[in-house]
Amino acid sequence: MSLSKSSVRMKRVAILSLWIISVILLFEACNVAERSKSLKKPSEKDTLAFLNLQIQQYPQRAVLYKERAEYFYRKQLWDSAYQDINRAIALDSTQADFYFLKGFFLFSHKKDSLALLNFQKAIQLNKELAEAYYLIGNIYFLQKQFPQALEWYQKALAKNASEPTYFFATALCYKQMGNIDRAKYFALLSLKKDSLFIKSLSLMYDIHMENPAEWNKAIEYNNKILSVDSTHPQAQFNLAFYWFKNANNLQGEQKEIALKKAILYYSRAIFVSPNFANAYYQRGYCYRILGNKARALEDFEKAIALNPNDYRAYYHAALIYKEYLEKEKAKSYLQKAVSIQPQWQEAQKELDHLP
User: Fold this and answer.
1) What is the domain extent for residue 60?
2) What pLDDT is attached to residue 46?
3) How is residue 211 annotated by DSSP?
4) How far apart are CA 235 and CA 33, in angstroms?
5) Quick one: what percent of the chain has pLDDT higher than 90?
6) Residue 253 to residues 211, 240, 245: CA-CA distances in angstroms?
7) Hey, how many other C-beta atoms are within 10 angstroms of the C-beta on 70?
8) What do you get for the CA distance between the two ends of the chain, in Å?
9) Is residue 76 part of a domain?
10) Do 58 and 85 fall within a single domain?
11) Per-residue pLDDT at 1 exceeds 60
12) Which of 206, 228, 250 is the last residue of a domain?
């Protein structure tokens, strides 16, 4: 009997002990949670202060200047970023990533020739730096030297065949060179690496939109973009362009409905991305077809403000100014269009007919 009572007491003590331990653990968990709430990520200001202190203590440590250069670049302090990456290179000229970063800074500020030299130096120090090959390709692409761009994109792919961006860039280069089959091939390779890679999905949309018989296929690719991001500005633009192209094959009320749908989607693209210059131009063109000159002119002017090299916007704005009898304004805009695109005979004819 006494053994039974002793056993019961032991069980009670054990249960009580477990309860006490569980309470202690619960309180400790709460304390940890509270402490974690009080821990904050270091602010950007704290990051700069830390880097400044480190540089003060270790002024010969090149990597610290590189890290501070990255900080300054994120804060859009271009001069400070450039000075620090130069200091890093002066302290240690053997680091490929220092030259790569300097090249990236220069490329971002459209100093292509200097950027090219730094990317090439980075490659000399590290021949496996695929991103440097890719950015050299971008420099040539922006200069419309597509064969040279293609060569560097393929070098990037040889170093890293798992990056969908490099396949996409190669595809885009082939498209610019008029080789649609190769463009499709590399775009699809990009999508094999990442089936929802938006740039390649949009490129496949563009390719299929060139053939009216394949427009439904184009929309399938665009729908995949929308599955990733239902408000993506490029996807909205693509839908708008689809309706704009449809309007070209319609008449009367059906044409007007299609153009209004295009305007709706262009407006959505602009709402999400207010600096989407081409969306303003395309929406303005739709307004012009519908006879809304005021809205069209407003959009053309906005497109020009965002992209001063959009000769199409200058041309169509000039036609509206001509209709408004603002001949000097029309003349200056036509001159600008022709200066940007000298081979555009239609604009030249309009300019020649002005007094």
Assistant:
1) 45-127
2) 86
3) S
4) 42
5) 86
6) 25, 18, 15
7) 17
8) 123
9) yes
10) yes
11) no
12) 228
Residue type, 156: A
pLDDT digits 0-9 by tens, 174-205: 999 999 999 999 999 999 999 999 999 999 99
Number of domains in the chain: 2
Q: What is the pLDDT of residues 224-241, one digit of tens each?
A: 999 999 999 999 999 999
Same domain, 123 and 70: yes
Which segments within 160-267 are labelled E, that is strand? none
Q: d(Cα 55, Cα 91) in Å, to the nearest integer? A: 13
> Is residue 257 included in any domain, yes or no?
no
Q: Are residues 134 and 221 in the same domain?
A: yes
Last residue of a domain, one of 173, 198, 228: 228
Read off the CATH number of the domain in which 122 is found. 1.25.40.10
177 and 205, same structural domain?
yes
> Is the distance from CB of 174 to CB of 186 less than 8 angstroms?
yes
**Residue with the larger pLDDT of the pair 138 and 35:** 138
Rounded Cα distance, 119 and 127, in Å: 11
Question: 218: phi > 0 → left, psi -120 to 50 → alpha, else beta; which?
Answer: alpha
Distance of alpha carbon 164 from alpha carbon 195, whole angstroms: 10
The amino acid occupying position 148 is Q
* Residue of 311, 257, 308 lying closest to 286 (CA atoms): 257
**Per-residue pLDDT, 2:** 46
pLDDT of amino acid 354: 86
**81 contact partners, CB below 8 Å, separation of at least 6:** 69, 70, 72, 73, 105
Summarised one tens digit per residue, pLDDT across range 255-278 is 999 999 999 999 999 999 999 999
